[in-house]
Design brief:
alpha+beta; seven-stranded mixed sheet; 22% helix; 35% strand; globular
Amino acid sequence: MPTYISTTGSSVRPAQWTSTIVRKYSSAGIGYSVVELQDIRHVYAAAVPRTGRTLQEQAYDALKTLEAVIQEESTRGSIVHQAVFLSDARMTEPCRQIMRDFYGDELPATTYVPQHPCEGKLLAIEALGVGRGFGEVQIERRSEQLVITRHNGVSWIHLAHVQPETDAPSVYERSLSAFQRMQALLNQAGVHFEQVIRTWLYLSDIVGPEGQTQRYKELNRARTDFYQQFRFARDLVLPSFRGEVYPASTGIGADGRDILMSCIAFATERSDIRAVPLENPRQVSAYQYSAKYGIKSPKFCRAMALSCGPYATILISGTASITGSETRHIGDPEAQTHETLDNIQALISEENLARHGMPGLGTTLEGIALARVYIKRPEDYPVVRRACERRLGELPTIYAIADVCRPDLLVEIEGIAFSTRKP
């Protein structure tokens, strides 16, 4: 029998099994996916409040919805990572207190992102829960910023809301400071920065001027200079891999006038788990961009794939309407959305995974369990959402207003996908 849950008077639709290992649910204001991976249940949810006028009322509406989902999936107390999208950066501290009051000792690592939810609400919440399936999960909550989950001989380290610790005004210096702060927080938890596999870099006025150049280009200069001391995933890449290795990443605009970061690191001593940075056959690798796009190119891979036996987890970087290294469909948000999804489809395809030494572990857009869609212009939201729903189906998705890293890009999409090798 399919199961249903009640969320403030609205029914969640029954699970639909995809050709991957993802179950997806949807209802007004809530979408979530469930992935059973190595005997562990992972829940990915996106909640937009449906009632309330104040920040507290809307936050509690969204949080109670998430709580109902977690209880339904028998993973109570298991939310380990959250991104809270806020319509006003000044809401960060009041929202932080709301989260403390609601979660108590079970507070997830939470980033408060100053990006206005497209639905016009004061906030929206994206959450990751990890709970018991047939296996055991240990959750270590180090702080409001850092949560570690351990199961099956692997550790996932979720680090949230990292800000620079300097009075220097330049994007370059503030970006370096934030990376150094990220490294210090990871080191305190016994984690090396080389174990980072996914980052989010939120930069206000991302395409604005910075001296004689652009703010995003200065962020990339700082990232390049900081990353040059590390060999990412060196113990996890396939022995035959000869390319460059960088974390998957999203570099995206935000409100305010500063930079904010978060990341996921991964640690294991298991020999059967491999990390493979994926590049897109339709695109020039970002780290190989010409000087036209900055003195130092963006150092990230298009996706990071983690394989274990017949399963793969694919962390998809922020992706836009670019083929080769050029922007396509300038001024057309719908066409840019479809081009972006075409890029993601090519990136996670069986053909591309096989090309990267992971035959049988490719998937389709159906294998995506969670997505974020960043939209530059609020008036483009309806057409972008229709295009995404047409291609992605019912999927937990956050839609947020955010500037993209080029003036002519109108849409950026990221996500996480799962696949299993067919017998």
